[in-house]
Structures are given as C-alpha cells and as structure tokens.
Amino acid sequence: MVAPGPKQRYFWLRIANRAPMASSGGQRKRVKTGNGRRKAGGRKRPFVGRPGVRRAIVFGWATIVAVAVGFLLMRSMDETTVARQTPAARPAPSAVAAAPSPSPAEQLAQTPRTPVEPAPRPRETAVVAPPPPVTADEIPYDARPAWQRFAAASPVVGKRPAIAIVIDDDGLNKKEAEELLSLEAPITLSIMGYAEGMTDYARRARALGDELLVHVPMEPQGKADPGTKALTVDLSPAEIRARLRWHLDRHDGFVGINNHMGSRFSSDAAGMKVVIEELKGRGLAFLDSRTAATSVGEETARAAGIPTASRDVFLDNEIGASAIEAQLVLVERKAREKGMAIAIGHPHAATIEALRRFIPQAKARGIVFVPVSAVIARRSGEAIEAVGTTGGASGKRSGSPPPPRG
Predict the structure, then answer these.
(1) Helices 321-338 & 349-364 angle (0-180, nearest 10)
(2) Average pLDDT of the residues in 172-188
(3) How far apart are CA 377 and CA 356, in angstroms?
(4) Which domains does the chain show, CATH number per domain?
(5) What is the pLDDT of residue 72?
(6) Sequence-ordered list of residues with C-beta below 8 angstroms from that of 272, at least 6 positions apart, any chain
C-alpha cells in the first residue's frame, strides 16, 4: 500500500476533525458549562487559530504597515520641500571660442617681475647696563645751615636802601594770611608756632618768594596770655627745650624764629640761653622782636655765634591808617640812614592796605624790599651769595627774586 502524501494527510485530517466522535454514537459530545449551556465537545482549537487572536494579529500588522508608510511619506515630503527652497546652480556660460592655453614658457614671459624684498631682520634690542647704585657718600648733601638753605632769594641791593617787612601772628586768620601773599614784594611771614594746617600755605608762600619764620610764644610782663606751650621763666631747661621743639617740629622750610610777646622771657638770660643753643644745633637764625628794652636775645645769640638781628620799627602798635603810614615813613628813613631796616607788623586789614599802597611808592623812590635773612646776613657779617633756595613766581612781583632752584 502506498503511503499518503502531505496533501492527502492534511485532507484526511480535516475530514477526521469534522467527523462525529465514535464514542458519542455518531454525535458530537456537548459539555455542560457553568451557565447552563452546553458547549460542543471535541478537540480544542489552537491558540493562534482562534478568531480573536487572528484579528488582533492582523490589526497589529496593519498598524505597523501604516506607521511605516506614513514615515516614508513624511520623509519624502521633507526632501521635496528642501529641494524647492534651494536654488538650483546655474550652469556657467560656455565660452564662444576658447582661447588656446599658453605654454609654460609664454606664461613665464608674460608674468610681471616683482622685486623680492629681503625679509626684515628681527630688531636687535640694545642691552643697556643698569646704572651703578648710588651710595650714601655719593648723594649730594647741602652742608649749609638751615637759615641759608631755606632763605628766599634776595634781589641785588648794592648801595640802595633796603627794607625787610616781617608779619607776625600769621596763620591765625586764614583770609588775612591769603591777602599777604598778594603783596607786590617779598616779605617774611612769621607763622604762629601753634597755628594749624599751614603746610600748603607755607609751600605756596615760599614758591612766591616769601620767607618763613616760626613765631614762638614767650612769657610777657603782666597777665596777657601768649598762647599754647609758651616759654616761661619758671620752666626747667628740659621743659623749655621740649616746648620749643614742639613749635619747631610742626613747621618746615623756615629760616629761624622770633618771639611772640616775650617781654619777660626774652629778658631772662638763662631761658634765652636754652633757646639759642637749640637754634644753633638746628642751624637757625634768631630775630629779636625787642618787645622789651631789656631783651638779651640778640646779645645771647651773637655770643653763641648764630646769625641774629633786631627789629627797627613796629608798624601797627597803634592800628589806624595814618599811624601805620607814619611808621612806614619812619622805617624808610631808618633804611636810608643804616642801609637796611626791619619793620614788624601784623596781619590787620589796615596794615595790609597800608603796605599795598606803600610798596609801589617806595620802589619808585629807590627802596629795595628784601627777606629778613638778607638783613640778618648783613648784620651778622655772613655771606649772602648762597642765599636763594626759594624765589618769586615769574611775573607776580616787579623786581622779584629769581625762580627757585627746586
């Protein structure tokens, strides 16, 4: 007997599935379910063969195919849009008649020759040796005493009469102090020892050709108050020296001192000796204001060998225009008699105004106005040629000293 082929086995298998079961008497067996219905018995269908499963599989494949088709369509549309937005490159116009290309020899002959410049060489930096260090011995040192180093430059006097105007109590009234700088002559400003904030003022005064003193308060006769840290006769030498140093160390650029009041202290030889010794150690000069006829200041200074002088005229013991003008006439007469004279005034408005009128008139009569250091040098027998570390501003004062050295 010939064995059945695959198609025959499949055919007979389908017929067998449809044929009624032998055990059920030619009828399909029905199984009772839980809801009272009977289900046809027989062999169960495979899972994939069930209708619901087959529909789910078909639906899934259809979804996959739809998504793929949609993706391809979108990609195709994007490429089309990009192609539309990008302008097409125009073909280059073809030459009507192409010229024959020259040979390499002709190209070389037609090429203009450009002179070739040599490449610039890197700039050579000169190596400069550093200057040798300056030792302390090589630093220039001005060995002159302070009264000459800080003295204002004096105009040439010759045989003409000269007047030195000293203004005491400077620095207590700032407005009047500024007006003193506008006088058209070199004057000597005696700044009060306890005056505040005078550094810039002193610098400007020296730049204009004026000279500086420190006005040291000293004890007077009577009950008048000379001011802060005044020198009094009841102080010990150490305290006198300490108070004097306090006044001197607060200022700079001055040639010496003169006394504020001091009619009692300047008459005390012991106290004045302490003052003169301190000035000698600093190389400073002493101007005796001579507030008392019994003053020993100039005598003590001359004995110690320091430059010194005394005032000749007080300008404003009596404050008033006519009284001050009379004193100015007096100082001019003394200058003509002695060759030089020292006048001391104060920064009163009347004094400043009287000086403003007197100075140009006196210059017209041949009077020379000098700093007090010039008179001190003449009376002390000192050389005046080296004096002149400061000078007047150009154009500010007629007949003003030469500009400063530095």
Answers:
(1) 40
(2) 95
(3) 27
(4) 146-380 (3.20.20.370)
(5) 84
(6) 265, 266, 296, 297, 300
